[in-house]
Amino acid sequence: MVSVSCLLIFSCNKKQPPPAPPTPVNLDTVTAEPVVYYDRYPSTTQALSQVNLLAQVQGYLTGIFFKEGTHVKKGQKLYDIDSRIYQDNYDQAVANLKVAQGTLTQSKQDADRYTFLNEQKAVAKQLYDHAIITLQNAQNSAKAAEQTVKTAKTNLNYSVIIAPFDGTIGFSQVKLGDLMTVGQTILNTVSTDNPMAVDFLINEKQLPYFEDLQNGKYKTFDSLFTLLLPNGAPYPHTGKISVIDRAVNSQTGAIRVRLVFDNPDFYLRAGMSCVVRVRNIDNTPQILIPNKAVVEQMGEFFVFVAKDTVMNNTSDTSSKKHDAANSEDKSHERRGLFAIQRKVVPGATIGANVIIKSGIVAGDKIVVDGVQSLHDGSAITTSNKAAADQAGKGNGKGGQQTNGSPDKK
How many CB atoms lie within 10 A of CB 155? Predict the structure, then answer.
């Protein structure tokens, strides 16, 4: 029992291990200032109007009068279908119309004559009635002949395919000599090219904001909508909201928005994958810190704030079991600079920086280098980071750019 008691006394009086040395870090003071940034949305260019050219009459293709992939004008001749049979039908219909018109003239003269005789009581009533009926039949025949001429004329016109509107025409789907089938053979596709639509999806929570933009609530702001081409180059023209879709997708919570961009040089073509940039309109100061200062853990984001304070020696696990007994013992306390973990809510990313919406305030000193070696309550020092601090300033907020132009005012 004496031996066991001595062992317990010895273990209780065991010296605590020395604390870990402070971790060298670089610090940066948080400031708030106006920032210009853009929310980015993947988008696709669309033609405002697009139509497939279909054959309306049957026949062999006899002519192609355009260059594929070029701009065409409304009414421009594009294709010819063999029109000989339709020309013959039209000529025959015109001839039949002339016969019907001649018959109508004769019937009208007879009707006038019998009408005069009937008034003089000089002709049988039956002959007068027959003359009037013959006139009516002649009139109906003439109208039918006129409609036949119109139908023949329409079919003749359909043998020539013209552009329905100004736009860009694609690759021809038929070649000379191909047989056209009515309503089935697609000859080509024509789509409008100026202006061009750009469609993208937004979250339903953003819908009121975009409705305000559509209604012109923020008219004082220019260049709210810009476009990045597939190669990353900025498109030279700005856009405006044309349409917001009628309904939200109940499965994804997204709704489609359509912008319209002028396209005088035909840079934009239907189906391109671009990026829509929507400029922020909030002029209030924003907190902008280096992205490398933010640590992600289990879907949450944190930064380390430097505090000059007193901390308990968390490396001594036995002291945690005897906090009540050692409440008066100050040997486990350390005074100095410590890294305190703060949960933050990040916003838009601007180059190498990120906007912080909440969690830290202007004036806080945050760790921007060495965060990988820290945990909540780590002792830190800046004495060994002078050279690195100078390098870090080169990557700080003063050099942030988005798409080649500074984002900060």
Answer: 20
Of 105, 134, 158, the domain-final residue = 158
- Which pLDDT does position 220 carry in this prediction? 60
Q: Is residue 92 part of a domain?
A: yes
Query: Hey, which residues does 27 pair with through a beta bridge?
Result: 367
Q: How far apart are CA 238 and CA 262, in angstroms?
A: 8
Q: Which domain holds residue 24?
A: 19-36+284-316+329-403
Amino acid identity of residue 151, one-letter, is T
Question: What's the domain count of the chain?
Answer: 3
Average pLDDT, the chain: 83
Is residue 178 located within the same domain as residue 67?
yes
Tokens of 175: 């070649």
For 37-57, what is each residue's pLDDT tens digit?
788 899 999 999 999 999 999
- Pick the closest to residue 401 from 41, 42, 37, 40 (CA basis): 37
> Could you tell me if 257 and 169 lie in one domain?
yes
Q: Where are the beta strands (DSSP E) in 215-272?
A: 225-228, 239-244, 254-261
Last residue of a domain, one of 126, 158, 190: 158
Angle between helices 84-119 and 125-158 (to 10 degrees): 160
Asked if 140 and 52 touch (Cβ cutoff 8 Å), the reply is no
For residue range 251-293, what is the model confidence (pLDDT) as tens digits? 999 999 999 999 998 999 999 999 999 887 777 788 889 988 9
Rounded to 5 degrees, what angle do the CA atoms 323, 325, 326 make? Answer: 65
What distance separates the 2 farthest-apart alpha carbons in the chain? 162
Summarised one tens digit per residue, pLDDT across range 156-185 is 999 999 999 999 999 999 999 999 999 899
Nearest 5°: the CA angle 242, 243, 244 is 140
Tell me what pLDDT residue 376 has.
85
* Assigned domain for 43 exists: yes
Considering the domain architecture, whether residues 223 and 359 belong to the same structural domain is answered as: no
List the Cα angle 36/232/49 in 5-degree steps. 100
Asked if 164 and 234 touch (Cβ cutoff 8 Å), the reply is: no
11 located within any domain: no
295 in the same domain as 271 = no
pLDDT of residue 73: 94
2, part of any domain: no
